[in-house]
Amino acid sequence: MTLQARLAQNNFVVLGRAGMDLYADPPGTEIEHATHYFTSLGGSSANICVAICKQGGQSSLVTRVSDDAIGRYCLNQLDHYGVNRSHVHTQDGEFRNSLAVVETRLENCQSVIYRNGAADFQMTVEDVEAIDYSSYAALITTGTVLASEPSRKAAFRAFELAKAAGLPLIFDVDYRPYSWVSAEDAAQTYSKAAEMCDIIIGNDVEFGFMSGDYTTGFKKAHELAKTSASIVVYKKGEMGAITITPNEEIKTGIYPVTALKPTGAGDSFMGGFIASLANGFDLKESILRGSACASIVVAKVGCAPAMPTVEELETFMSSHAGVTIPE
Amino acid sequence: MTLQARLAQNNFVVLGRAGMDLYADPPGTEIEHATHYFTSLGGSSANICVAICKQGGQSSLVTRVSDDAIGRYCLNQLDHYGVNRSHVHTQDGEFRNSLAVVETRLENCQSVIYRNGAADFQMTVEDVEAIDYSSYAALITTGTVLASEPSRKAAFRAFELAKAAGLPLIFDVDYRPYSWVSAEDAAQTYSKAAEMCDIIIGNDVEFGFMSGDYTTGFKKAHELAKTSASIVVYKKGEMGAITITPNEEIKTGIYPVTALKPTGAGDSFMGGFIASLANGFDLKESILRGSACASIVVAKVGCAPAMPTVEELETFMSSHAGVTIPE
Amino acid sequence: MTLQARLAQNNFVVLGRAGMDLYADPPGTEIEHATHYFTSLGGSSANICVAICKQGGQSSLVTRVSDDAIGRYCLNQLDHYGVNRSHVHTQDGEFRNSLAVVETRLENCQSVIYRNGAADFQMTVEDVEAIDYSSYAALITTGTVLASEPSRKAAFRAFELAKAAGLPLIFDVDYRPYSWVSAEDAAQTYSKAAEMCDIIIGNDVEFGFMSGDYTTGFKKAHELAKTSASIVVYKKGEMGAITITPNEEIKTGIYPVTALKPTGAGDSFMGGFIASLANGFDLKESILRGSACASIVVAKVGCAPAMPTVEELETFMSSHAGVTIPE
Amino acid sequence: MTLQARLAQNNFVVLGRAGMDLYADPPGTEIEHATHYFTSLGGSSANICVAICKQGGQSSLVTRVSDDAIGRYCLNQLDHYGVNRSHVHTQDGEFRNSLAVVETRLENCQSVIYRNGAADFQMTVEDVEAIDYSSYAALITTGTVLASEPSRKAAFRAFELAKAAGLPLIFDVDYRPYSWVSAEDAAQTYSKAAEMCDIIIGNDVEFGFMSGDYTTGFKKAHELAKTSASIVVYKKGEMGAITITPNEEIKTGIYPVTALKPTGAGDSFMGGFIASLANGFDLKESILRGSACASIVVAKVGCAPAMPTVEELETFMSSHAGVTIPE
Predict the structure, then answer these.
(1) What are phi and psi of A286, to 5 degrees?
(2) Predicted TM-score (pTM) of this structure
(3) Do B25 and A28 touch (CB under 8 A)?
(4) Below-50 pLDDT ranges, chain D
(5) Chain D residues whose beta carbon lies within 8 Å of the beta carbon of residue C40
(6) Angle at which helices C265-278 and C283-298 pack, to 10 degrees?
């Protein structure tokens, strides 16, 4: 079965965290001066799950949430968006659920993320061994699960089991320095993970980080596409993306919008890209649709609630001036 | 003194209403399902005053607010933005301050405006006779003050007094059917007002309405420019604007953005356009700057708080893809 | 059938308004300085309907709401609380739904109520003639429906029809000066209505107002009980209430609490009192339960959402220090 | 100088944390279902500082806040309430500021507190050695600073330095199990701290905990008053408090109110009690005023913003039914 035929099963098992995002309200307000907040579901993996469900696919999150009201909030929200949570376990003790206090601002946008003693890092090998991988189209992982133990060990075990079941592995580098003990550890672990994966998505900084130097990141992306991966997406922010396969290199621009905030673009891109491959679009179309999803999300408030449906995505693409010409 | 030399005094007396806007929160929420709101100063004339102050000019609002907590809220907000309120009177009795319950949504955006028994319609001839017009650069009026008595009579009296003091009259048609007894009355009154003014701003629907037929609106705009007005701006929404003077016709496009809501564009255009003329930009530049102000406001939440400073306006114009080509 | 046997049917048809209440948030904030609000269903008759439903009874509201998003908000909220709205009609045109901007403060608590051109005053004789009164336990009316036409005429027609169907009429005086053309008109209309009713609830000021002088209000209450009414409740705020029947006079105290706001007490008292009579409690017990409901509501935020269930009411009564001794 | 003469200097140095409290909004909402929050300054020591300032005294907080927007929020809030923050340091790295997600509910009131890797535990011996203790009336400490190093060592160093400068030590046990490695460690550390202090405030559970058994807690309180402390306040929740000195035992009741939430009572009691001693009230009066402060705070929303001024406290005490009779 080809990669795309497999993805067409359109149900994904996703490793990573769910959290609560608190947005300083009204939009534009700085945290220092905020008196009010509104919340939405957050966490990159939960966001990707939501993006897939909104595009008509199915997703199942694998993580741990805290055994308290914030953890229950996350469970309620996953239900709200239709994300399967049969592999979400609650973690008791003094672990806390990931929580982000964020702003809706474009310049100097601040976010304060609470990840010390985070419940999701308590995901175990047993958690991931309880999953029947053969029933899914692919395994999606965001890099944050690799930052700490026992979550890291569990993630690599999930990679093995998924591979053994014939699943493509999809990896979003999503490097967040604050969760890692050292940059060296992060670079080595990311490289090890990337070499196991079939589809790898990262930005210029992240590939540079993996290769040890910003200037050699694009070379690293190329090597991965040449040796192990089927698709490597090298994102360059407002300058678009270069998608590398063993056979070709596709340059794409972005859909320019007036962004309200920088956050949510990566999760929305990933969700929209994978959902589009699953829905039968070709590689270039899927990249453009992922880019459109990213633009839609940064021009709205919130992340999970801003993820577009297929209909909203198509309205945006048809009414919008169109992508920029990539450099 | 030329029109622009006069405007360069950069202090404007503005007739019209101040109100309280209540935005369903978080953005995207429909009023039917909203549990929370946040507020900002509203009312087209108050918004124009704010836009001028944010661009470095001075503005003085002439209106009546209710003698209650909502009226006092408006006064507090005018102070907050630096708008002079020495000509804002409080109106007692069962009159209520204008109030708008609105949404931050692009499609099917709803707003419910409370204008029955509105305090601002109680503006009197005495109110406007107490003003020393000679100390201002120009008189700005939005059409809503003409919808009811005694406000209408007071507005026409202010026109006479301002004209006698040598002030240019600037008129924003801003037609809102709900405040008028009949469309005929509105059409006649608007035409009478427009014929007295030097700068007239309206959209295709509004000029069509004044001329009695949508198809003859552009002809009406031309006639006004030929007979009485110095500058007529005929706005066509996303298709840009045509600015008509006795000597020329300037077509301009818009700055495309991902709008969050349709509201606030007109007030922001007016404020940005007049402030730019006052700041010494030529007519075409001023129209483009007004258009940029409109785009900035529709891509943010709120109206008054979204009005740009000169610095924000210039950052937007320099970083933005640029105006569309007008048709 | 005795009055109480009739009430035991426990389904009430209630004339009067539903509105949207906007509470300055967080509690304690003054409207002048508020940046945020939260909403709940408001309007005295809607509140009484909610109180009855929360106590296990059924209620059906008879009113008109505006044909806009605020009107639809009210319909959604009535559904949320289980209030029947088959007799709630939408009113188009420039009528607006009743809306109240309020504070959660005890001292100098402000509220600004938008009732100019209110949709609920458009209730017609046809609206009330479409109701099958025989299927209800009683007709409840709050005084506000009498303030304007055609609502007043419709209310008196409903009185006739309900009486003809053998229904007891229950009347909450609830005098709000701002809605009335004159105090004389109000006094006459209230007196006329009160003379038709079986259960009349008002406070010392309201009975004084009906009798033309504060000092003769208690006499007025007595006369009503002697001539036409079965039960007259003369409320004295923190000093408790005197309930007058043809045979007896019952003095009751209040349940002292730390109030957060003065509003909602009257609607909660009415709902709790009538629901308790319907649930089989005797007259004195029902008055005390109504008083407890009033205390519960003033010590919480909001009105409709603060109305207690039977279980919450009983927890409060059993755990609370008890009523004051009436003077 | 007597203890009370010293306290009359009315400026206090307070060890402990400042945090951000997020209240699910509107009041009554559970975290699981909340969509909105509002914030106020939190952290027991910050709350005590605010209580003292509101009562007319001066307070200076000694702690560390995170070097991010949440830390800056805390600094802004301390300024807002007039709390001196010259001894508040910012802590960089991956430490996070204490943050609490809480509810305004009486039954089953939930709070989720983020204290993993908390910045305030990074308070050092250097931080406390930089303080000129001789300029203060007393040192106030809440037990939480003892839960972790280096904060614990710093606190004991502050005890030594304050004692050497002749300052009375005031200690609020305030035991929160989640921050401690083990109950044994907590019990020993609390006992060691309590033995150094002049005024000790705790509840029945906390004294029981220190003595190793709930039934011997009151004996423990007595022993402390007999051997080392001047005043020991043994709080019994709704049953009042027993205040023990070497010479007497004072039983006091509470001011019954309809509480909205259980939180904030302890901080408000401490602040009101100490401020009243400083303001010249005798011991029993000061206890009663502290109790009244506690009742005021639990009947309102928020903690820091709910702390009463002297005027509000006296209005409450004069208008309120009065304290219960202690058992």
Answers:
(1) -65, -40
(2) 0.90
(3) no
(4) none
(5) 26
(6) 150
